[in-house]
Design a protein that fits this description.
Helices cover 36% and strands 19% of the residues. It has 22 helices and 25 strands. The chain has an eight-stranded mixed sheet, with helices on both faces. Strands 11-7-8-15-17-16 form a six-stranded mixed sheet, sandwiched between helices. A hairpin with a 2-residue loop joins β12 (313-319) and β13. It is globular and about 100 Å long.
Amino acid sequence: MKRVFISYSSKDKEFAEKLALDLKERGVGIWFDKWEIKIGDSIIEKINQGIERNDFLAIVLSRASVKSEWVKKELNSAIIKELERSSVFVLPILHEECEIPRLLKEKKYANFVDSYEEGLKEILATILNKPNDDKENLNRQHANYHVQWPEEFKRKSKSKPNGSRPSPSSHPPPPLVPPNPVRQEAIKKITTLYWEYIKTPENMSVCKELLPIFSGGWITDPAITLQHELDFIDCICGVVIEGNEAIAILPSGYSTLDIEGVGRSSLILRLLGITIPYGRLIGLDDSTLNSLKAVDVVFNQPRSPYRLLASDIAYIGNSAGRLSIVPTKGEKISFIWDLARHIFRLTELDYKTGDHRKEPGRAKLVEIFKRIPFSEFNNIFGDKLDAMYPLNKVIILNRSLVATPQPPTARRLEGDERKKHLRDAMLVSLKHGSDFWKRDAEALKQRVEYILDRIDWNTMGPIVDLTISHPDKIIPYYVFDEVEELIQKGELPKRRYGQAKVKVGRGIRYHNDTLITSVPNVDEIQILATSGEKLFSDTFFWKKLCQVKNRKFYLKMSLLDPTSSAVEEREESAYTDKEKKGEGFLRKEIEENIATINRMSDYFEKRKSRVRIQCNLYNEQPLFRMTLIGGKRLLIAPYLKGKRTGYNTVFYDISADKESDLFYGFKKMYERIESTATPIALSV
């Protein structure tokens, strides 16, 4: 005998008891609180037992029940049980017109509003697993999830300049890409992992919002029902929206496998105005990772105009001749996983391609994933994820490994090369090493060709090839200063620095690139900075130090003493965002970077590396930021009022051989400050 738990509001008691009696008369076992809970029983314990021991939970939906805290608790418990069983457990019963709870919006419900008898037949058909001849009476809530552009895009789509829709291809539609059992198992595993994450007590505040993602289908399913399934395919890509303009970022398909697509997450974070202090996470081992409560996240001010539609996967295809995208059902939780993977790649000092897919890297990735504060990202997403968006611009991200770092370049594709580059970008998943993307190659190629043949290229927005050339697989964060400017302005500005007699470089990029390329050729680097934040955020620098073998190398850092009055003076004079970050943020920043120095010193010691780190604290407000490379080269930048070291900072590159007076004058200033500094003991 099938058993059903009846969940209802006390205001609907008469209806609920009638339903319980009618179901019982027709051979259904019933758990009804009035019949089951006796005087002296623990109400919570009896309800939990009832939910656990029954085959179904029938929830009576009414204006009263959707506001009832008891009913909400019973529903949450039931949804969790349904997910764990991977089969239908919750049966919605519409007693009167009301706002359907979000957890149930994608479920069919038995409609008792129009006819009690018809509603009873519908619910019995499910409980007793009998065919129902009146299926048309079973209201389909997801019927409203038809393919639809937001209103602002509807208005735009009416005008089609420079031509009309292309004629259909002569060849017949290709078959659907058949499901691959290996891929389905990989999706199942990642879905389970996501579920384990969101059902923890720390995330219960967002659990209600995320539960509908898991209540039907897969998290990788499109967020809306696609009327023409042949016209769309899921691809590796990111999508952001600025106002009404949707921009897709796809890997090129032309880069080598170990760097294909690497950098997309960094670019998306930059566009969204999100900064991750990577330096706080480098060199973490099991013990230090376990002590980390949460990954620190900084949302830059003023707020970015971009919003996120897709971080790693979206459905790309043709709708009325327009290249369009549909986010996935699970985008909000998928973003957290993609962010964790991105952090792991950048902060794992010995990272090799694919380490995040196998142990022990996988376990560390999961721990990072669990420590990302989901609720802090609520405001980064587009207002409507369950919609279709025509693409106004496509950026194809091309990676190139070169001996010397180069500025990024952008080239607008024209004519037939647009289709060729877009086709290759949409097929990048065939080269992916993860089981998550395994599927029939030939069927996928036919499907992509079918989609692109139906695009009206006359109305297609710009497709831009964006090339990032750098000597390392992982792109340093500061490169994206230029990438962002390139996307927004179309070109990088040409800077002039007057009649300077010494070599001049622009931005922290110039400083860090110079530093990194010098590491193999020198034995010592000395740095005097306020907090050194721009260097500590550059995981590429620390990775480069890890490559130093069979020789001694000294890194000497002099930072402002976090306990000195000079810290408050520096905050007051230089940091215009002080009120946004809170009092004492510079002190905290320095203390966190000292902790990183400590951790990296310990890291090198445990690996018997010959890299040695020394840290000194000085207590006067500096006039210049100085980096002494190998005793023969000096990079200096003045500390200006109201400005942090960053993208537009001008660095003077002074050589001991060519500008000896300047070099030794600044070196003497450096040595004077260093002589008054206090060395700190590192835990080695």
